[in-house]
Design goal:
This protein is α+β, with helices and mostly antiparallel strands. The protein folds into 2 domains: 117 residues, 2-Layer Sandwich (Phosphorylase Kinase, domain 1), CATH 3.30.200; 251 residues, Aminoglycoside 3'-phosphotransferase, Chain: A, domain 2 (Alpha-Beta Complex). The protein is 45% helix and 12% strand. The protein contains 12 helices and 10 strands. A 5-stranded antiparallel sheet has the order 1-2-3-5-4, with helices on one face. The chain has a 3-stranded antiparallel sheet with strand order 6-8-9, covered by helices on one side. It has a two-stranded antiparallel ribbon with strand order 7-10. A hairpin with a 5-residue loop joins strand 2 and strand 3. It is globular and about 60 Å long. It binds adenosine-5'-diphosphate, 2-acetamido-2-deoxy-1-O-phosphono-alpha-D-glucopyranose and magnesium ion.
């Protein structure tokens, strides 16, 4: 494996004690960075695991700023968790330091790497089988937002510009359709039309933020189900991971992205659309857990924005997958045996948008019920 040699240098750069015992590549299911599980054998034969990641520089032009955000946020969380009587080494990430105390190392090819301690006896899910697990995931993400409520959001760097600026994402999509570099647009006319018909919707959240109706908070911005670790034995929420996009944002982004991914009855890239539905049961489980932790903190306008968050985060990612398909799969990693992977991903998202529109009144009813019970 080409990366093994690389891993020797990385282990040395982070001064991990011991010798490399095992390297597992393609660890996790992320679409952007490259994740490895590294096991070191220490002098006394102890095996210690680390998560090692190489930054995708196309997505993250300034890894140093990403790490500045991540280290400040995790230090802040560390103190909060201690204060709450929790175990900070289990409930938040701990980054390893390299030369000059930096939380990243740069290899000879100019690639940026970072590493953190592996959290034992925990797992992340790709699909929900038990609604109770989704309720737990909701509480874990909501607690993350809650603990960061007094972190000064304005001091965080924007690690990816306009990350959840849906109108900007729409503009890039339109450009990709017009350029149609690979001649793929003819094969996805229906999907393109579906998105174009929703141009006005793209402005919903931003407009309310600009009018001062929605506060800017510290948000995670990538609240996929698999970015929460659950205790392998008890199923309790353990830790929110994947902090690269922690930035100033709206609560609706985090609530919305969780629903987008986790309240679906199928995987994000399920090719058989008849299997893809919005589960009202899962929506309800998430909303219940979320409201239990955050209801007293949200303004009425924020509360009202949450369902819109679900629709817009889903439309936005659907648009981004389709943009990438039209541009030749330059952003999201695809399975090489699936040339239409990004198109298939886009289709599941658009199907979910449609389902949300159809069930809008029910979603509102569930939201109101959960708020009253919280
Ligand atoms: P990606 O950018 O690839 O999504 P993540 O940071 O989400 O990277 O990590 C990928 C997977 O690795 C996670 O879904 C989780 O299962 C596992 N993982 C990540 N960090 C840890 C950790 N500190 N301890 C244990 N497992 C982890
Ligand atoms: C990417 O890195 P990962 O797989 O957690 C993407 C998110 C998308 C998601 C779709 C930095 O997340 O914005 O919502 O794929 N991350 C980045 O699954 O673009
Ligand atoms: Mg992840």
């Amino acid at each position: 494996m080409a990366d093994w040699k690389n891993m020797v240098d990385i282990a040395a750069a982070f001064r991990f004690p011991g010798d490399i015992f095992a390297v597992k590549d393609h660890f996790g299911d992320g679409h952007i960075n490259s994740t490895y599980l590294l096991t070191m054998k220490e002098e006394d034969a102890t095996l210690r695991k680390y998560i090692v990641q190489r930054f995708n520089r196309h997505a993250f032009p300034r890894p140093d700023l990403v790490m500045d955000n991540s280290t400040r946020v995790t230090r802040f969380l560390h103190d909060k968790i201690l204060h709450d009587g929790g175990d900070p080494y289990r409930e938040t990430l701990h980054f390893c330091t390299a030369a000059e105390g930096k939380p990243y190392a740069v290899d000879t090819e100019g690639e940026y790497w970072r590493a953190y301690h592996f959290i034992d006896d925990a797992l992340s899910l790709q699909l929900i089988n038990e609604p109770g697990d989704f309720y737990t995931v909701a509480k874990t993400f909501a607690l993350f937002n809650r603990r960061l409520v007094d972190f000064p959001a304005e001091t965080l760097h924007e690690t990816i510009e306009n990350f959840h600026n849906t109108p900007v994402r729409f503009g890039r999509f339109v450009k990709a359709v017009q350029e149609d570099k690979l001649g793929r647009a003819a094969g996805c006319r229906r999907e393109i039309e579906f998105i174009l018909e929703r141009e006005k919707d793209c402005h919903y959240l931003l407009l309310r933020q600009q009018r001062g109706e929605l506060p800017v908070r510290v948000t995670h911005n990538d609240t996929k189900l698999n970015n929460v670790l659950l205790d392998a034995e008890t199923g309790d929420g353990v830790c929110v991971i994947d902090l690269d996009t922690v930035m100033p944002g709206l609560m609706a982004y985090d609530f919305g992205d969780s629903i987008r991914f986790g309240a679906s009855t199928a995987l994000e890239d399920e090719p058989d659309l008849s299997k893809v539905q919005l589960s009202l049961e899962l929506f309800s489980a998430y909303t219940e857990g979320y409201m239990e932790v955050l209801a007293d903190l949200l303004s009425p306008a924020e509360e009202q924005s949450l369902i819109w968050g679900a629709k817009l985060m889903t439309l936005e990612v659907g648009m981004r997958f389709l943009t990438d398909y039209l541009e030749g799969d330059v952003y999201f990693r695809i399975d090489e045996t699936r040339p239409e992977h990004n198109l298939e991903r886009s289709r599941t998202q658009l199907k979910l948008v449609q389902e949300m529109e159809t069930h809008w009144a029910e979603l509102e009813r569930i939201m109101n019920r959960c708020r009253l019970h919280a």
